[in-house]
Design goal:
Elements: H1 2-11, E1 12-16, H2 17-26, E2 38-42, H3 45-54, H4 64-71, E3 75-77, E4 82-87, E5 90-95, H5 102-113
Antiparallel strand pairs: 1-2, 2-5, 3-4, 4-5
Helix pairs in contact: 1-5
Length: 122
């Protein structure tokens, strides 16, 4: 878990989702945001490339709340429960949930999907 925390702390910077929603509205773009009040700005060129390679479209069908995110331009990273938005070349990661441990539910799966092995360097 230490490697996952190190990865998350150096890669993901929390910013208020309201800031991004306001910026999107000012550009007349849909401002649908994941449930969590924070988005996470991805830091680092290799991290951006790695996450970009995992992004995909997804059809949530009858799950209206999640489908509206996709319709507004959010993509998903399969197996992580994360939504990603490309805003002017910057990647924003959103969590559509609250009240649970993001490390176990999202950051560890992201660490694994990206194929990181920092935990083996000990």
């Amino acid at each position: 878990m230490d490697a996952v925390k190190e990865f998350a702390c150096m890669t993901l910077v929390a910013i208020p989702a309201d800031w991004i929603a306001d910026a999107l509205r000012s550009r007349d773009r849909p401002a649908a945001m994941p449930m969590c009040a924070s988005l996470f700005l991805v830091q680092g060129p290799w991290q951006v490339r790695a996450i970009r390679n995992q992004m995909s479209s997804f059809d949530f069908g009858d799950d209206f709340d999640r489908q509206r995110l996709v319709d507004a331009g959010w993509q998903v990273i399969p197996e992580t429960g994360l939504f990603v938005y490309d805003l002017d070349g910057y990647l924003l990661v959103g969590v559509d949930g609250i009240g649970y441990d993001f490390f176990d539910a999202h950051w560890r799966p992201l660490y694994e999907v990206l194929g990181l092995r920092w935990h083996l360097d000990d």
